[in-house]
Structures are given as structure tokens and as C-alpha cells.
Amino acid sequence: MNWFAIFAIYALFWVISAFIALPFGLQTPDESGEVLVKGQADSAPSNFRPGRVALRATILSAVLFGLYYANYVEGWVTMESLIRLGR
Question: How do the domains of the chain map onto residue ranges?
Fold first, then answer.
């Protein structure tokens, strides 16, 4: 596997991980006791921290990519095993 492929696959894992980590730890103004600003949606988060989301996404994507790459090198799950599992 070349470096460009490694980077592209890791970037895909990072984006997916960011969407997975996005809703964790957020509170609405109702939950945090803050007053809504005029025009603000009731469901808008009041404590959004993009740095924390990026850190969580980086850690999760590193773990997932590590598992993916280990499977690529070791061949734990192959196409043949998936076909046999479907039968």
C-alpha cells in the first residue's frame, strides 16, 4: 500500500469518526440553563468545542485505521471468508 492510499483511507476514517464523535458531550441551552438568543434554534448546542471533537475523531480514526491496516497486512478477514459467511 503506498503513502497516498494510506493518507486517503485515514482521511476517510477521520471524517467518519468526526461525524460519530460530533454529538457526544453537547448540551442544549435547556440542559445547560442558558437563555436562548433571538432566532436561535432550541436544539442548537451551547457548549460546542470543535477542538475536542477533532481530538476524539483523531483518536478514534487512529484506532480504526490501525485495525484496518493490521487486517490488510495479516489478512484476518478476506473476501473469501465473507463469501463463506454469507452462505
Answer: 3-86
pTM: 0.83
Which tens digits make up the pLDDT trace of 24-75? 989 988 888 888 889 988 888 988 999 999 999 999 999 999 999 999 999 9
> Considering Cα of 32, then 38, then 40, then 41, what sign does the dihedral take?
positive
> Which residues fall within 8 angstroms of residue 17, CB to CB, at 6 or more apart?
56, 57, 58, 60, 61, 64
Cell numbers describing residue 50: 470543535
CA angle 72, 17, 69 (to 5 degrees): 10
Nearest alpha-carbon partner for 49 in 37, 41, 57: 57
